[in-house]
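#struct-pred

JT: dropping the chains for the assembly here, can someone run the whole complex?
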Amino acid sequence: MKQTLISAVLLIMAVVLPLLVGENPYLIGILISVLMMATLSSAWNIVGGYAGQYSFGHAAYFGAGAYTTMIMLSVFNTNPLIGMAAGIAVACLIALITGSIVFRLRGHYFALASIAVAEIVRLTVLNLGFTGGAQGILLTDVAFFGLDMNSKNPFYYGMLFSLALTLAITAYIHKSKTGYYLQAIREDQDAAASLGINLSFYKNKALMISAALTSVVGSIYAVYIRFIDTTAVLDLRMSIEIILTAIIGGVGTLWGPVLGAVLLVPLAEALRSNLLGSVMFKYGIVSETSPVGIFLKDGLAHAHVLVYGIITVLCILYLPKGILGFFRRGK
Amino acid sequence: MAPPSLTRIHPMLFLQSLISGLLTGGVYALAGIGMSLVFGVMNVSNFAHGDLMMLGMYMAYFAFTLLQIDPYLSLVLIMPVAFVFGYLLEKILINRVIHHPHQNQILLTIGLGLIMSNSALLAFTSDPRILTTTYSSSSFNILQDISVSIPLLLSFLITCGITAVLYLFLARSRTGMALRATSQNREAAQLMGINVSRMSAIAFGIGTALAATAGALIAPTYYIHPLAGHSFLLKSFTICVLGGLGSVIGATVGGLIIGVVEAMSSTYLSSDWKDVVVFALFLAVLLFRPQGLFGKKGGQ
Amino acid sequence: MTRHLLDIDHVSKHFGGNVAVSDACFSVEEKQIFGLIGPNGAGKTTLFNCITGYFPLTSGQIVFNGSRINNRRPDEICRLGMARTWQRVKPLCNLTVLENVMVGAFATTNATRTAETMARQQLQAVGLVEYADKPAGSLPIGLKKKLELARVMATRPKMLLLDEICGGLNHTETASILDIIRTLRNGGMTIVFIEHDMKAVTSICDRIVVLNSGEKLAEGTPEQITSNPDVIAAYLGGGHHAQD
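RK: done, full complex below.
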């Protein structure tokens, strides 16, 4: 099968990439961010793109994974994998509760409810004591099967594994009864029900799978950065970024979210790290201390979100099915 | 500060919270009405609503610091400018997604909101501004112990005035009745000869004007910064859902209720948890009465 | 002795103050083609939606194949063997014609291969084989109706509820669909038919119930119904012809 062959080749390339890139922590860091965003968007895609249920509060599952893992590691000193398993359990619980409230609603109500749930989770974590409140949680030491946890490589492979897992699950669903049912739900819920599809069961199934995969990424992130707080892992901004990445690449396609991440993450990084500014300073085009220079240095760092906003608006207006979606239907 | 013991509820404390809550609730109601109108006429969730409020805050701030116009007087400028801005925004951008699925509409308005808040960040920096007028901290006492903040009272009175004018406009004027017809049944309104796309633009213009006005009214009592709108966004949605999507009366009542709920939670629980209470109330409404208090459409 | 497959027992549906269906009573026998007719707004589609689980009943009960089905979910009712089509067709637009029918086929199997085989059989039966890989949304209305029929047949129902399946079709398309329906009945299917087209109804139905303003106006064979003065009055009064 052509798809499987291409996927296998890509996987092999991704596995050897760190070796080719060499000891460049900055670049590996960016690759990790790309993989992370790709996985998060692909996981969201299962419930958003396939089932058509746009969860606007997916950060809740990311945060659930991150916080549960952090707490298990820093307080109970467990193995990171156990922390991850606990994170999945918490995320699935939140998903079940969310689903039971939210899936009987339609249209606006559904989107708003998903945000409300995520905000309740965020505010609760912010106000509880054992979650570190506004200060967050800091992890000092991590042991994982003797690997060097100060290097970035283990995390690169961890994220790559979760992406591969997410894509494999998506591809499997795509061809299975569940996949057909989810897409039927997306296209027309009433018709789907009339064909024997238990709407609530399948929506919840998609959400739980999506939540579990999202929380896995959160767990890896927590151990990678060693510090989390609600702004980093439970913010509405993250939920929106996940959706944007999927939309721009192509919602409901297998590789769309990956494409979105590959395009957007380096772009954001270029803006955030002020690539343009550094280049202009380096070649003396602009002086660092001039007003323009100061604007480039301080102001443009915020520009990446502005650019996100502009890209979103353009995408919705002109490319609503995303890049892959546009080529897929040939329209 | 420990919350007061509930076994001895001071009636004065209760009344104080109630009054502050109602006064703030009035401004919330204004924001809610603007959003509800857009829901009713256009069936669009405007996620840029909070950022429109933020723009109103900054307009009031600059009118005061640069032109020395009192924030309440600057409304005379702010309302028409905001109306035109909203009208154009709808005609040029939002109109294109009226027949698109809900999630696309939401994402478009989110994108617009991001553009607005981040442009503000670039232009005004993230340093919070404070708008202090001579009467910002003035208050007077009623019933011996209850202090009423003058800015809050003024905002409330202005809100009442604007709401009354809006009600009259919707009830008596031709455009107002056309708006209400479009809100009840867009297709039927179109068949009756109403230019529904113009109605959408007008509704969005009014919604924007009300949001900006709400922003300008709270400006003297809040920190003004580019991300200030976000906390009002979800609150406005809660008010709309509580009152019933599309119902102006509902949004009015909803705003007052939310103002009071917030004030009470702040007093009797803690100000950290007040937002949680509001969102929990939001979910409860969605669960048990999705059409809200005065809702016309049932849960879609 | 033929048994009743569907019993509508004093069913009423109110929407607030509006009475859409009032005290409807009739039964459908196995292997019957049963017609449900009436002027616009008579409550036919509302009754269908009540039977198939989209509206909760205000009162009364519905028994299908021996089980009470009022207040069951639509998907449960489908799995019990009652399938329906829609007055305004509901194709799953972004899926292909074949994929649409496969969704129906999955009601009785979990395997994708099996579903595909079953789906292709259904496409054969309605004559849509050459459209298998086209997006469902791109079909003209006549073919969309056939697709809906194929899709619903793939769920292997005991009884079919057809809501104005001839609506919007020309004479050739209508004749084609009626042929398919006759073939289905000859194969043992029970069919309940909402229709406007009196010619279609009288030519194919074994028994007819007439609704008017939510109430049952008449019940009987096609001959009895077309000669019933109340029926004629209801149709003429509502601006409709009683028969072609």
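JT: nice. The beta strands of chain C are 4-15, 18-29, 33-37, 59-64, 67-68, 82-84, 159-163, 190-194, 207-212, 215-220. The domain at 1-81+189-244 of chain C is CATH 3.40.50.300 (Rossmann fold).
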